[in-house]
Amino acid sequence: MTVLLSTRNLGRSFAGLRAVHEVDFDLPAGQIRALIGPNGAGKTTLVSLLIGRLAPSEGQVFFDGQDITKLPAHKRVALGMAYTFQITSVFGDLPVAENVALAARRRLGHNPDAVQAQVDAALVRVGLAGMGKQLASDLSYGHQRLLEVAMGIVQAPRLLILDEPTQGLSDAEIDAFKSLIRDLSLETTILLIEHNMNVVMEVADQITVLNFGEVLAEGSPDDIRADAQVQAAYLGTGHA
């Protein structure tokens, strides 16, 4: 199986504190990989290193075999990476549809018909059909997260990184989101950072567990559920 995203000896320190340490990580193309761990485990820092928002103190990041360690975030997007943030980053003073259109134009250019078709399809897929004319700032927090997912979808990414996408969603919306993730996995590779363990266990093909900035365990949902170290460090605590 072709590895799409990988890291070798990846690390980042802040004033001597090791937030991420010697992480070796391989994500095969077409997989849904969940990244979990306790608060402060280094998940957000690791994702920031993967997408180019932070530079590593050590190690390398590879995308489809290319060393992208020194590439800025926008060039990683151009290679086919898309991501949502743990804190919403939508344009609140623009309508929902225009937020998605801005993302679509990165790939399609100024082709109004093609852009509109992609916007409409993405809003339907994430459950926001009929909300296109609302200001993004008027959406609930959970719906803003779904808007971010729509903005990722229209870029037709090779890798979609979703950071806490179910936060603020109702139970029914979470069920719909799980179906969406399975559907999207037929088109793209997914890295899911998620605190909702029911979502993780139901949709992930493989799970990577971080603890104190290091990889504690990797395996299938069944493997992770049965791992005593993971139980002690994470699953038994009830925290993300």
Automatic annotation (TrEMBL):
It holds the Pfam family ABC_tran. Keywords: ATP-binding, Nucleotide-binding, Transport. GO terms for cellular component: plasma membrane. SUPFAM superfamilies: P-loop containing nucleoside triphosphate hydrolases. Residues 5-237 form the ABC transporter domain. One of its GO terms (molecular function) is ATP binding. The keyword Ion transport does not apply. This is Branched-chain amino acid ABC transporter ATP-binding protein.
